[in-house]
Design brief:
Length: 501
């Protein structure tokens, strides 16, 4: 007889002297009660007596009523025994015990799913017995894993996704997390997120206030753990040769996707938030020490270059930087798995980094088309001096020393060379700021002027991304000066993306 067809027979009143057998295996199948539930049960039995009978097999083994039996014997309260008919063997008994518990009030979804999962091997065992006995079996008992979950979900009255998550929680969860999920203080969905964390962290979250067990809190804990793991992986990595920090990261990130590279770089470096920013404002408050040479004038945040590489190049693409300066682009390309050719016109700059070749920017770009085996660049990144800004900080070969006419002519030639060299489908990225001289308006150059130059050279503007400078880059004395003179400091800076028209 199936568990659902079992009936209660031989109903009779018994006293405390009746022989009842406690089977530990049967007892352990009972979902535990909380201390509050146990107190309420004991109080109810004392005040109202044992109204519900204890259920036993024909051999006296207790199936239901373990807690009531203990309290009744403790306080001398009479109880009734009902013998459950149709229990043919221990498997039948276990199925009855588990199924009977679904009638309990206030069972959490986790507890219901846990009970259903306990049925899984028992149903399979009964199906095997029937097959060996030559009895035609229920088709649902020979189901695939997915179909089995669906059947268990129906029994527990939960979704099959809840069944799946409960399985994971039971396998990986700490005891404290499982207790909380069982009691319903942590939802199955939240527990499924927490369970991926180390056991000690799971317990820490469970011990926090219930209000803190939110998606945001769990995400923060998980991010904290990932940061620890990434930093530990970086620090423990043993390079075959002596490497600086950039090359070590490049080696450690080999084979990773772009999104994973950015995530691990963010996790493994303090104050480096370089996860993708899918919008047209990329603001970073200063340069991160991982990228570029410390102290180089006009050094830009490497995070800007990382975003540029993520959104406008592919792994293995060739990036050309003819104004390499402190080497920020080189370092960003290394950790992102891009090839990079870097040039600069200043001997001192090239002497400081062996990976920067001494060559004029225009000649460097033109040279790529004259070498037969040289691939065309997929991205040309132009982080040039902003006309005469910082002209005293750059070397004697800097274009910041040119007058306005010469400077704009240089850009016309640069755009023409880039148009001849750029790979089809590639991009030119110009990082630029307006040059405003209120005392000499004829000297002013605006970003629109650069855009016009590149359009005339055969490019079209595809994006304009705001990468403003930080207010921290302006000395307080200058702020006071601008304030007193009622003038505005120029912090606006744009990254203009061009493609071949």
């Amino acid at each position: 007889m199936a568990a659902s067809e079992q009936t209660v027979a031989n109903i009779q009143w018994q006293s405390q002297t009746s022989k009842i057998v406690i089977d530990p295996e049967f007892r352990d199948l009972i979902q535990p009660l909380t201390s509050e539930e146990l107190d309420l049960l004991e109080k109810s039995l004392i005040e109202e007596g044992c109204r519900d009978s204890l259920k036993v097999c024909s051999d006296g083994r207790l199936l239901d009523g373990h807690h009531r039996l203990a309290f009744c014997e403790k306080h001398g309260i009479p109880y009734r025994i009902d013998i459950v008919d149709g229990i043919a063997d221990r498997i039948d008994a276990k199925i009855w015990i588990i199924t009977n518990q679904f009638a309990r009030r206030n069972l959490s979804n986790f507890a219901r799913s846990e009970l259903a999962l306990q049925l899984k091997p028992l149903i399979a065992e009964k199906a095997k017995e029937r097959m060996l006995a030559g009895v035609k079996q229920d088709p649902t008992q020979n189901s695939s894993e997915g179909e089995t979950r669906e059947e268990l979900a129906k029994i527990a009255i939960v979704s099959h996704d809840t069944i799946s998550k409960t399985e994971t929680i039971l396998k990986k969860g700490s005891d404290l997390l499982k207790e909380a999920a069982r009691a319903g203080t942590v939802s199955v969905n939240a527990a499924a997120e927490i369970v991926e964390l180390p056991l000690a962290t799971q317990d820490k979250i469970v011990k926090s206030d219930k209000q803190e067990i939110t998606a945001r809190a769990i995400k923060a804990y998980k991010k904290q753990e990932k940061r620890k793991q990434t930093k530990a992986a970086f620090e423990s990595y043993k390079a075959p040769v002596e490497m600086d920090r950039v090359l070590k990261w490049a080696k450690l990130l080999e084979g990773e996707s772009d999104i994973d590279r950015l995530e691990k770089l963010s996790d493994g470096n303090d104050d480096l938030n370089c996860n993708p920013r899918p919008y047209d404002v990329w603001f970073y408050n200063g340069s991160h020490p991982l990228f570029g040479r410390e102290g180089y004038p006009g050094r830009i945040p490497g995070q800007i270059v990382l975003q540029l590489l993520y959104f406008f190049t592919q792994p293995g693409d060739l990036v050309v930087d003819p104004f390499a300066g402190g080497g920020t682009t080189i370092d960003a390309c290394a950790v992102m798995g891009r090839r990079c050719l870097a040039y600069d016109s200043e001997p001192e700059t090239c002497a400081a980094r062996a990976d920067i070749k001494l060559q004029d920017a225009i000649e460097a770009i033109k040279s790529l088309t004259t070498v037969g085996s040289s691939p065309r660049p997929d991205l040309i990144f132009l982080d040039t001096p902003y006309f005469s800004k910082k002209d005293k900080e750059y070397g004697n070969h800097s274009i910041s020393r040119l007058n306005r006419t010469e400077y704009l002519k240089f850009f016309s030639d640069l755009a023409a060379a880039a148009h001849e060299t750029l790979n089809k489908g590639g991009h030119v990225a110009l990082l630029m700021s307006d040059y405003i001289d209120e005392d000499n308006p004829d000297e002013e150059i605006f970003i629109e002027d650069y855009i016009d130059i590149f359009k005339k050279a055969g490019f079209r503007r595809t994006r304009r991304i705001h990468c403003d400078l930080s207010t921290q880059q302006i000395h307080p004395d200058y702020i006071n000066k601008f304030t007193d003179n009622k003038r505005l400091a120029i912090l606006a800076r744009d990254l203009v993306i061009f493609s071949l028209a």
